Amino acid sequence: MSDTKKISAPKNRAPTLYFIIVAKLFKGVLALALAFGILKLANKDLPDLFNRLVLWVHLDPENRFLSDISDKLDQLTAANVRVVAIGTFIYSLFSLVEGIGLMYRVSWAGWLAIGESAFFIPIEIRELIRHPHWYVVGVLGFNILIVWYLFANRQRLFRHHR
């Protein structure tokens, strides 16, 4: 009697893809929490909250920069705050769908992640030219990595969903 062993194909490991998935899911959860936090502020007196925060941190409330922020907060309406909360909520769902789609290795999620990351590259380059900061370089580099990696490896990563 011969032993017939089932030989399985090696798993298609992709640590960079796993990192991208974790980053997308983390960004989605963070944006979702931010959306609910913003929504809670919709019916609050934002200038008063800001002034209490300034006093709690022991900053000078008469500082021109801080008083300008307080004046800008005075111009916000509850409807404007709700619009920002809804926009943040939709963006969080977008990131969560990307992350879950990449986790299941569906090809449309790869294209969605490529499109979203490529969309922000010109904006980040503009921001880097206007206000150079190390974190803008990091975000730009991360988005370039996502676009390059997913595009260059799309056949290997999403082969079984064709």
Features:
162 residues, mainly alpha, 7 helices, elongated
Largest sheet: none
Distance between the termini: 39 Å
Outline: elongated
Helix content: over 70%
What series of H and E elements makes up the topology? HHHHHHH
Radius of gyration, taken over Cα atoms and rounded to an integer in Å: 22 Å
The tally of domains stands at: 2
The stretches of 5 or more residues where confidence is low (pLDDT under 50) are none
| Strand coverage percent | under 5%
Class computed from helices, strands and strand pairing: mainly alpha
Number of helices: 7
Please, what is the average pLDDT?
88
Care to count the β-strands?
Answer: 0
The assembly state of the depicted protein chains is: single chain
Summarize, please.
The chain is mainly α and 162 residues long. It has helices spanning 15-40, 46-56, 64-75, 78-103, 107-130, 134-152, 154-157.
List the helices and strands and how they pair.
Layout: H1 15-40, H2 46-56, H3 64-75, H4 78-103, H5 107-130, H6 134-152, H7 154-157
Helix pairs in contact: 1-4, 2-3, 4-5, 5-6
Task: Write up what this structure looks like.
It is built from seven helices and no strands. It is mainly α. The chain folds into two domains: 14-104; 105-162. Helix 4 (78-103) packs across helix 5 and helix 5 (107-130) runs antiparallel to helix 6 (134-152). The model has no long low-confidence stretch (mean pLDDT 88).
